[in-house]
Amino acid sequence: MARLNREDRNFTGSLPDLKASVKATEHQTKVIDRKIFIVETHFPKVAAMLQRYAVGTAKLRNKGDELAKTIATYAEEESPSLKQALTTMSECLSAIQDQRDAEVSKIEEKLVQGLSVYDTKCKQARNDVRVSSSLSTREVKSFENLEKAQMKSTDRTRIARAQAEFQKASGEANRSLRVLREQMNEFESQKMRDVKQIFSGFVVCEMELLARSMELYTRAYQGLMNIIEEEDLEEFNKSMTLKPTQWGSAPALSNAGRYVNPGNGRENVLEEFGYWKKGYPDYHDVLCNFLSTVSQNFAKTKMDPETLAVSFDPDTANSMDDIDKEILQLALKQVEKTLQELGVRVSQGYKLGYELGYIKGVLEHVLKTVPESEDKEAYMNGYVNGYLQGMLHSFKQGELQRGNCSDNNRH
């Protein structure tokens, strides 16, 4: 007898042929079961390892953020050139951690989730296999009943009913098997697409992190190579130099260059002095005996008058180049003009007196200490503005003598 054809709804062959066909179906079912088992076994493991990989990357990201913050804090305490390089490195490290954070999010939200959904898909596939197997078993039993009816009964009605039940069971089994094969083809196809997408996504994440890291580490490396040791050593040596104690109304040398601010300019000093002057109706002029003021300051600071020799030493002035001399003269003229407009009068014997002599010496020293890379004129303007602020403060505090000034003292 020919082998059973499962598509033949009116099959009336022998039971062995049907069992042979069912055996072929069982083989297909085993192959399907094996495929489902592979996915059920390995996908959860891969998902768990990806999750652990994401956790490890997140920990590395956190450590990287801590390292970046630590380097940034350290950079604030360093010299300019080294500070710039360390700041750049800190920024690069922080940016790399941002890239790692993006990778962690993608692994957790897309890759791990993409594998986790197969837990449900495998359960559904197993249920489909179970339904198909039960229908195949039902088909075999209905065929056995048909054969018994044909062999033991002459009742055509009973035989017809058994044959109808077999045809129904056979049709359901055929449809179930066809649907199962279609579903498993789709299952396998979707599995391969997902595996391709998930692992290619992981590889792309790693390549993006690697490319971004290479870019940022290159920038950090270049920043470190741009450290100028000579400038930082010069800054270090300057910081070890003990600055002389300052006296008078001028600000300390360490504040030179810090007053480059339009709000501290000469015009603002005059305007503020005008407001102050209105509060003193009996104010006529300022008689400033700078010799007395200098003596008082010597007493306060315990400075030796001979230390001012540098202010009047012609060799000091001669050692300056023409540009520095011009800058110095402009600064002194600004100071002198401002003092005169404030109503300051100095004694005849000293012309501009100790005050201008002092500020001249200070400005000469400032010019010598200004780094070549800085704007000397801006430094001078900043220092002069600070000096004028100090002078105004002295007026307000009453440290300079106020009172009527005789004609002999006017010049």
TrEMBL record:
Pfam families cross-referenced by the UniProt entry: FAM92
Protein name per its UniProtKB record: Uncharacterized protein
Annotated Gene Ontology cellular component terms: ciliary basal body; ciliary transition zone
GO BP annotations, alphabetical order: cilium assembly
Domain of life: Eukaryota
